[in-house]
Amino acid sequence: MRYEIRVEGHMTDTLTKAFPEMDHVVMSGQTVLFGPVVDEAHLYGLLARCQSLGLHVVEMRRLPE
Questions:
Q1: Phi and psi (nearest 5°) for 55?
Q2: How far apart are CA 42 and CA 35, in angstroms?
Q3: What is the DSSP string of 4-65?
Q4: Burial (CB count <10 Å: 0-12, 13-18, 19+), residue 62
Q5: d(CA 50, CA 64)
Q6: Which of the four pLDDT bands, split at 50, 70 and 90, describes residue 65?
Q7: By three-state DSSP, how is residue 2 classified?
Q8: Of 63, 1, 64, 4, whose CA–CA distance to 30 is shortest?
Q9: Stated pTM of the model
Q10: How many Å apart are CA 8 and CA 19, to the nearest integer?
Q11: Relative to the CA of 15, which of 7, 46, 47, 63 has its CA 20 to 30 Å away?
């Protein structure tokens, strides 16, 4: 499975390093994290990481294979 997580604002290099398994790109004032997600537990872990870092998740969606 591949997922995309859109976060409000431009994430610093330090913050993006907290998601080593994900690629990222900045678009329209948002940072888009995208990459493989192994299972549901991994997905919830990514979201928990966002929350613990104070990131505001705007959108999350599963990408087509």
A1: -85, 140
A2: 12
A3: EEEEES---HHHHTT-TT-EEEEETTEEEEEEE--SHHHHHHHHHHHHHTT--EEEEEEEP-
A4: exposed
A5: 23
A6: confident
A7: strand
A8: 4
A9: 0.91
A10: 16
A11: 63
Dmax over Cα atoms in the chain, in whole Å?
A: 30
8 DSSP β-pair partners = 30
Phi, psi for 15 (deg, rounded to 5): -70, -40
The amino acid present at 5, given as its one-letter code, is I
Long-range own/partner contacts, residues 11-17 (CB < 8 A, 24 or more apart): 11/55, 15/53, 15/55
Instruction: Please give the C-alpha separations between residue 38 and each of 8, 11, 41, 48, 65, in angstroms, as whole numbers.
Output: 24, 23, 8, 16, 13
Assigned token pair, 45: 């872990």
pLDDT in tens, 35-60: 999 999 999 999 999 999 999 999 99
